[in-house]
Structures are given as C-alpha cells and as structure tokens.
Amino acid sequence: MKSQLLALAACIAAGTGPYAHAQDDWPARPIRVVVAFPAGSPGDTAARIVAEAVGQTLKQPLVVENRPGAGGNIGAEAVARAAADGYTFLQAPDTVVTINPAIYRKLNFKAEDLTPVVALANFNQMLVCGPSSGLRTLAQLDAEARKAPGALSYASGGQGVPGHLAMELYLSGAGLNVMHVPYKGPSPATQDVLAGQVPCGYLASPVVASYVSAGKLNGLAVSGDTRSVQAPDVPTMQQAGVAGYDATFREMLFAPKGTPAAIVDRMNEAVAQALARPDVKQKLQANDLDPRPESPEQTASRLRDDTAKWNAVIQKIHLQVN
C-alpha cells in the first residue's frame, strides 16, 4: 500500500497521472459539436465554417450534430449532461445562458452547467419592414407606433429569442406599444414580412440582410454596435437615434462544466487561430457574421454583463415561456 501511495504521489508531482496524460493527449479522437439550432441557422453556419479550420489545427475532425428546439435548450441540456472530457461542445447563441434561464419555467440545466469557451462570431438582429408598410426609417416606425398604440405589429423568430428581446429593449426604453408576433424561427417570419402578412420584423441579420441589399425589405436599423457587412447602408440603433442602445449577440462555443481548463484554453486558442485566417473570416462575413474572439475570462465577463441587461428587460415585460 505504501509503495502504491508513493507511486501515485510521484505521478501527481510529475503531472503524469492518468488524468493529466489524457489532457496532454487531447484530442485523441473526433470532437462532437452539438448545434442547438437547425441547419442553415446563423450558428450552424458559423459552426460548420469554423469546425473545418479548427479540425485542421487540432488534427482531429469536429463533427457537427444539430439538436434544435426550445430556444436552444434541447442542445444545451444534452451538452450540460455530457462527459466533461473535451469531446463534446455546444454551439449556441449566448442567449442560452443570458436569457433562457430567466424566461423558461422548466429548464433542465443551469447557466453554470456550461463553461464559456469562445465566441465564434458576433451577429446583429435587424429591424426590417416590408415595402408595403411604407416604413423606411426608425423615426417613421416610432411615429406610426405612437399614432395608434398596439396597432402596429412585428415578427420575431420566437418567444425570448434575440430578435424579440432586442425589440423589447427598444420598445421599453421608448415607451412604445407594438404587438409581437412570434414564429418558429427567423426564416418563416422573414417570409411573412416579405409577403406583407406582418409589416415589420426584428430578425437575425444573416437571414434578412440579403433581402435588404436586394431592395425586397427596408432595413431600419441593426441591433449591435457595427453595421451589417451585407447591408452597410442600414444604421445601427444608436446611429438611428437610440442613445446607449446595444444588443450585440454572439454565437458561442460552450463546454460541459468541469471540462479541464487546459482543454478549454486549447480550444479557445484553436478557434482564435481559425478566425484569424482570411478565408474563414471572409466566409463568416459573407454570412453577416463578425468574428471577434476573446479569452474565456473575457467571454465569461461579457456574459455576466449581458445577463444583467436582459434580466432587467425580462422583468419589465414579465416574459415567461412554458
């Protein structure tokens, strides 16, 4: 027994125990990336673009698996319950930890069950209106909403999704009443705005920017701090006159709680290297995704700030989802 304890102590001191060895060898097999939204969503696009480049750096393939549903909760729960061994990651918007825990009555995971690894890309929501609405600027929408409170409506990709919260952040600050029409994703919502079924929508910029640049939708403003690459003539909400407004969202990579810090840091570095490649950056920007990687600590700090901001909006509008 004494000899076994001495051998174990020697292994720990030398950093050569079985656990340390597993970290040193990581990755030794393919890595699974669970995408919490459907194929073709902004996050899915970002994950597939980045996965190929990261796989080349790590010398192991990243296998993308879509597990959509419930605002990202299904995929998030699957990863939260996965082994914290560095072979399962979650790709989802930051909202799965900044918004979902506050609005869903029943949630089978906690925000702290997921460790932030890195932001793959920032993305905007874009406030758009159909040509038949006659609304081309945020000032015109403001005037229309004040003229007949509750008569104007807007579409989003669903209850509690980024577009919904981005619009409510604006409406609550401006004291406006505009009816929310939630859809099951930004794509069907976009189609109804194009068809004139709903006059306006606050929707993912990667989904609607091409329609704005083609003149099929009027872009009033984008939610973040930078303009859309695909529709550069559309101002930010601040540029359109809403002082202090910033609703930047991020497509994130998370790991299960307990994943070794060395693995989290290595994945962060591999993603940052991938995002620095001109070909990867060009592909992301072509889909209106803005790569801005940060350290895990910076990412965690930003998530805490965003959680506080969105919780204030959620409490103000009394939003809850079953």
Task: Tell me what the structure shows.
It is a single chain. The chain is globular and about 65 Å long. By secondary structure, the protein is α/β, with parallel strands linked by helices. It starts with a helix and ends in a 5-residue tail after the last helix. Residues 4-19 have low confidence and may be disordered. Strands 2-1-3-10-4 form a five-stranded mixed sheet, with helices on both faces. The protein has a five-stranded mixed sheet with strand order 7-6-8-5-9. 44% of the residues lie in helices and 18% in strands. The longest helix is centred in the last third of the chain and has 22 residues, at 296-317. Helix 3 (42-58) crosses helix 11 (261-276) and helix 8 (162-174) packs across helix 13. It has helices at residues 2-14, 18-25, 42-58, 73-80, 95-98, 100-103, 138-147, 162-174, 186-195, 205-213, 261-276, 278-286, 296-317, and strands at residues 31-35, 62-66, 88-93, 114-123, 125-129, 153-156, 179-182, 200-204, 218-222, 249-256. 45% of the residues are buried.
Overview features:
2 domains, 5-stranded mixed beta sheet, 13 helices, alpha/beta, D-Maltodextrin-Binding Protein, domain 2
